[in-house]
Write a structure and sequence with these properties.
The chain is of the alpha/beta class. Helices cover 30% and strands 29% of the residues. It has two domains: 3-106 and 249-319, FAD/NAD(P)-binding domain (3-Layer(bba) Sandwich); 108-247, 3-Layer(bba) Sandwich (FAD/NAD(P)-binding domain).
């Protein structure tokens, strides 16, 4: 009988896991990959859409194009998860499994910050980025704020990248001198594990006149007065507010009994939950790495190797080390990179690579290679 693997969520983690199992077993395994969406979108593509580098349509990769032996994609909403039985109830029916992998990501909640929906904009969804594509060009004077509203959020470099790209956009339109840009973040430095990367970003901010406000959160907006209220009670006036909304575990995960605190509890070395045969990868778990696609991909690889070893009687893979590389947009068509490890030593460490043309090409290939691997077609993130 074929091993049944149920994968909930088709982001970085779900796509990489199902691809690896297909490569290992082909039709000899029964993988069901479930997601409520119709397509996959890279996080960095949202900035490309927001600043008019390419269309929203170009950023979408339809799940209907997935063709992997042994893998069946089902587009449906997950309504309940029973980790004890390794079962999920969906609008498409009930799915039983021998191994359950939860990779449902983090849900975003702009309404959790009073005034954000009415008086600001979020850029962490494709819909938000596409809306801003038409808003940003009309911003000509006053203060722009890139503000984080919760302590946990996807892709920690993104607020800094957004500020640098906004600077370029305003310079190109000839209105930068009439504007101000501020970045509000809950960290003391833009990228805490890597002092070198943080220094490079802060130097770029200083060169461009971008104000960095550390160790602060935006707790509300007052749309009538056009001010952002920070967690120390101070206020910042704004003409354009670009917000990173609150992140939380999906409600169906919260109702499943899998959470330990705010996220799914897992063994840091194996990504296994306390329920036998149940794993959690990506943004939905609390393993201690940043919530970013590259870490979900690495976690999925470790889980896939464990499943392969279990089925074939092979050797248990090495422990998960929480390693990943993030590309950082510095503006001016310059891309840097930070390589970080979160679980391999007593504390997280990061190594910085300065912006270069080689890293621009490397980032493009990063996106193109994943689409070739997961969807079997050629694609370029470049316009």
């Amino acid at each position: 009988m074929r091993t049944r693997v149920l994968v909930l969520g088709a982001g970085f983690g779900g796509l990489e896991l199902s691809t690896m199992l297909s490569e290992a077993f082909g039709d000899a395994i029964d993988v069901v990959l479930v997601d409520k969406g119709e397509s996959f979108v890279f996080g960095f593509s949202k900035l490309d859409v927001m600043f008019g580098r390419h269309s929203a349509a170009h950023a979408h990769h339809a799940y209907r194009d997935l063709v992997h032996p042994g893998v069946r994609f089902v587009r449906t909403h997950v309504r309940a998860i029973d980790p004890s039985a390794k079962r999920a109830i969906t609008d498409h029916g009930t799915f039983e499994s021998d191994i359950l992998v939860v990779a449902l990501g983090a849900d975003l909640d702009p309404s959790a910050t009073p005034g954000l929906v009415e008086g600001g904009h979020e850029f962490y969804t494709v819909a938000g980025a596409e809306a801003l594509r038409h808003v940003v060009p009309s911003f000509e004077r006053g203060a722009a704020i890139v503000g984080v509203t919760g302590r946990t959020f996807k892709c920690p470099p993104a607020p800094s990248e957004t500020a640098l790209l906004l600077h370029d956009h305003l310079v190109a339109r000839g209105v930068r001198g009439a504007t101000e840009i501020s970045v509000v973040m809950p960290f003391g430095r833009p990228i805490p594990p890597s002092p070198e990367t943080s220094d490079a970003i802060l130097e770029a901010f200083a060169e461009r006149g971008i104000r960095f406000i550390p160790d602060r959160l935006v707790v509300s907006l007052d749309p009538a007065r056009r001010v952002a209220v920070l967690d120390d009670g101070s206020e910042l006036p704004y003409g354009l507010f670009l917000g990173v909304p609150h992140h939380h575990a999906p409600a169906v995960v919260a109702d499943s009994g899998l959470l330990e605190g705010a996220w799914i509890g897992v063994d840091k070395q194996t990504l296994a939950t306390r329920f036998p045969g149940v794993y959690a990868v990506g943004d939905v778990n609390g393993v201690g790495t940043p919530k970013a696609g590259v870490f979900a991909e690495g976690a999925a690889q470790r889980v896939a190797h464990a499943i392969i070893a279990q089925i074939t009687g092979g050797q248990e893979p090495a422990p998960y080390n929480g390693a990943g590389s993030c590309y950082v947009e510095f503006g001016g068509h310059r891309v840097g990179r930070v390589d970080v490890q979160f679980l391999a030593g007593p504390r997280p460490t990061g190594r910085y690579q300065a912006p270069s043309e080689a890293l621009v090409a490397e980032k493009l290939e990063f996106g193109a290679s994943r689409i070739r691997r997961w969807f079997g077609r050629n694609w370029s993130p470049a316009p």
